[in-house]
């Protein structure tokens, strides 16, 4: 039996949740992300804001220039995650396999559960209906013979849309005359290369397949396959242990040139990375430090380590790497674990077996955190877990930065 896949994509998810919970926002241009007075970007925005040209990932200052009368809000990720769990609970009911792409998006393989295209159509419409009735939100749903077809279909009638692409012929007929950017995985730089070569449409990719492959290699082969309606990928449930890295970063509202302050921030980021690694049961054999300077130049540094997820080790390695890079004003700093593996692959050393080294690491990180709390008059006792929330982490670090600036 050929695959039958549903792609579900919420409509302006964060903004829609906020409008649902505050009807006074309905019909107004709502921008979720940073505030106009801050550094940052648009996370998402309502369709009313999109009429002004605002879109996701746009610099917040540019968004404000386009839409000065908009309503700007910080995202509430805890709320969005809670809603997302309810959404996926509904969607997964109907799937043989479900692949969550984001909080608000998923592929559902309904090949066996539906058994026919007609039944799959009923399931798709039921998903839309239940999402609206139970959570008072709208989604766009695509039904397709492949993952690419289903995703393309879900984007075809947004918002609150439904569309079907039953076979490769239908996909080719729909996409051939469209710009190459409309094809899955064609980004701005790839499109620019293709356009310069005179390859403007999806049809051009198909008809000039050899040239595309010579130009783009393996990616070119993939694009040719898509242009011909071929995509054999299967819906695969996300496994946290498939992650290649775990990281946390922060963008400051003003550039920072204090190394001691950056090290304090790295302590909190290292704790966040450790917490995430613990929750998904992973260890890393590499530590990375990411820095973006005031001139937007980004550098990364990495080190190989014995398998760990210890915040103390992450912090120690990152601060040592920080001491070895050029010291210029910095706008972003990040810490991460790489080369991840699960418990069964972890090689324990003798000291680890007896817990001696782990006790020393815990003591060191506890003392460092206590010193930080005392320095800034912060209280982590009993609710350190709050720092792992993006909004709390951001507010805490900004408070620390402003305090440091005032104290000189």
Question: Which percent range fits the helix content?
Answer: 40-55%
**Main β sheet profile:** 5 strands, mixed
Overall 3D form: globular
Question: What is the count of distinct domains?
Answer: 3
In CATH, the homologous superfamily of the largest domain goes by the name DNA polymerase, Y-family, little finger domain
Short description:
With 408 residues, the chain is an alpha+beta fold. It has three domains: 13-77, MutS, DNA mismatch repair protein, domain I, CATH 3.40.1170.60; 172-227, Orthogonal Bundle (DNA polymerase, domain 1); 240-407, Dna Ligase, domain 1 (2-Layer Sandwich), CATH 3.30.1490.
Structural summary, described in words:
The protein has helices at 13-21, 47-50, 60-66, 77-92, 111-114, 117-135, 147-156, 168-175, 188-196, 202-207, 209-216, 218-227, 259-280, 311-322, 350-354, 356-376, 390-407, and strands at residues 5-10, 30-33, 42-45, 71-73, 97-102, 105-109, 139-144, 162-165, 245-256, 282-293, 298-308, 330-342. The protein folds into three domains: 13-77, MutS, DNA mismatch repair protein, domain I, CATH 3.40.1170.60; 172-227, 5' to 3' exonuclease, C-terminal subdomain (DNA polymerase, domain 1), CATH 1.10.150.20; 240-407, 2-Layer Sandwich (Dna Ligase, domain 1), CATH 3.30.1490. Helix 4 packs antiparallel against helix 6 (117-135). 46% of the residues lie in helices and 21% in strands. With 408 residues, the chain is an alpha+beta fold. The strands form three sheets. A five-stranded mixed beta sheet has the order 5-6-1-7-8. Strands 9-12-10-11 form a four-stranded antiparallel beta sheet. Strands 3-2-4 form a three-stranded mixed beta sheet.
